Automatic annotation (TrEMBL):
Ranges for domain Agd3 CBM87: 45-252
Domain (Agd3 C-terminal): residue spans on this chain: 644-705
Domain of life: Eukaryota
Protein name stated in the entry: Extracellular serine-rich protein
Pfam families: Agd3_C, Agd3_CE, CBM87_Agd3
Domain Agd3 deacetylase, first and last residues per copy: 266-639
GO biological process, one term: carbohydrate metabolic process
Cross-referenced InterPro entries: Agd3_C, Agd3_CE, CBM87_Agd3, Glyco_hydro/deAcase_b/a-brl, Yeast_SRP1/TIP1_CWP
Organism of provenance: Periconia digitata
Amino acid sequence: MKRWKLHLRTGTLRSNVGSGIYMTIVWVGLAASTAVRTAQAAVTVNSTLLVLARNAAAASDGTGVLQGYGIPYQVVDLSVASSGLPQLNATPDAGNFGGIVAVSSQGYTNGDDWNTALSDKQWQDLYRYQEAFAVRLVRLNAWPSEKEYGVQSVGGAVTADQPIAITNAKEFASANLVEKAQMSTPNLSKYPAKITNTTLATEIAQFGSGTSTTTAAVINKFPSGREQQVWFTTFTLDRTSTTLLSHAWIHWLTRGLYLGFRRVYLNTQVDDVFVMTELYQTGKSYRFGVNDLKDHVTWMAEVNSKLPAGSSYMIELGHNGNGNIEEAVEHDYDNEPALCDPQEGIEYEDQIDGPPEYIKPIGTGKDLWNKKFRSYTWSTRCSNLDPLYVYLSATANRGNYLHVSHTFTHEDETNATLADVRKEIAWNQEWFKRIGFSDPSFSNNFSPNGLIPPGITGLHNGDAIRAWLENNITYAVGDNSRPVLMDVASRKSPFHPIITNVKENGYDGAYIIGRYGSSIYYNCDLPKCVNDEWKAIAGGTGDFNAQLEYERSVNTKYLLGLRWDPYMFHQANMRVSDTSAVTLLGKNKKWSLLMAWTEAVVYEVTRLTTFPIITLKHDSVARAIIARKTRDECSPSLSYTLATDRKSITGVSVSAANKSCAAEIPVTLPGDVVDAGGSRKEKVGGDPLTVWVKLAGGEKAFVLGSGLKVAEN
Ligand SMILES: [Zn+2]
């Protein structure tokens, strides 16, 4: 049997243990599961979480952030007549669940209406199970109870806004939440409490501020050794407070040792780079310039210097190469001889776009590209007539941004022909070759397999998708605001991509990853424009600062909820160099709309957490999202072994229903591993360490040399 030695430095899990103490971990590669039993101690616990939900809506509120981590769980919907508790343990020495979450989304009227969902005997069964296997319980949306939690209700249920904040994160330090960072909770059911039994209850979160505070959550430690974390508020996934506070209970419940992975990825994609945009209301054409790009380089450096350790934010530009040719031609008329051949970009009659969900019959539509455009002939001298091209082709500048295709001319692809889309893709690839982006030395910044479809069209056009795939475009972004596009039956989770199929998309095999829009619209360059448009088309109220407040609240929730879908912006949103200073977010300076949105969102995430914020380029974020799907479909599992006194975890074993899983399985540990024995380690900033395990047909086990404490004394 091959063995690897690992050393885990305990840090966040056991604050009483100095950082200099190392835990010895020995990885054991197992050819057969029988070896697990002979190699390890007798008491084992499957780490899968048991989620007890009053109804289906409650189940999704309890599991949404777990899906972001990829932590295995099993839901019991107690509103279904035949439901009941599953078997908690097969034998006295084999537990089936590593944690229990009781979640609800129903308001309380008369005390604990969980009594209608679970009998007292069932609760006792759960408690005995907890005691036997040192398994923790989390109760969300609980009504304050002296007997059960050591607290009393203070003034009954409230929905009016009261800030909520973590006050003591010591027992879930690996969650990396900022103590005392408040969040508002309008229209969220809350049951303010006060602790009456300080032996039983320790406060971990508060409602209110100043001298007017009440208890929002406690940790209970019973004399029997049983432990529970209890929240006196509803958890509902459409709230930032829920996605944020979910990290508190997940890390406490798992003790920071779980099958899964937590990372925040933020990609702000700027479409229409090189083309002109007709602005809202004025109808004027606008195209950003070199100074706007320079100002954003300076600004990105400033943002990165303020983000938590491990962060790396970078803007991604979605290019339309034909916009460069059109600009170059404008500067070429006085040249003799002309530098551009032909002395024109691609132009065609105005398109009738049609509804974006139109399913185009294969082979239909009319070519818009003039037949005279047979191959790409413009020279670099021609392209260089455009200062934007000169700037971005310089090695020193291009690496400050990420780059991806938005097609050559931005032809709408709803009804486009195979011939046109082939050119739209291939000519932009030729343009990328000439500007140097597709050079292998630039692969960290360029996404050769990605596409931002113009107006997110073509996703029901089999000819378009065929042309993408023929040209190695395998990843396209979709639009999360279009249910027809994103809510398809084959997509089992919002954390997964869609794979196109003939019936719905016209062609098999392209990946569509989600993308978020915002109220920073494509046709605005300045705050007034975008604020006017927000009010006119989206019922927005308030000034641009209010609009940023809205964007902050909507999008922080997605980032904290571990959604990795990129965000949509456009080139006009990067206008900054020739603007006047304005006061936004309390700072008087020159702002682009992109800067304002990004600062509103990322600094909110860093106010609440110390999570690093990382940009993955288009192809990499697509691969990360596809890997989530692959992992989930392998049904990975983790079980751990308890010492014979059941007071510490001594070993961990990773497996899956599909042991030949193509994806690596992440195991996150509450400490630093010095030697991962061949498995890939990933540790960024203050985020916990993840060891990526390749199963390769068998289970993988590791032994924690000095154990991970799970019980007091
Ligand atoms: Zn566009």
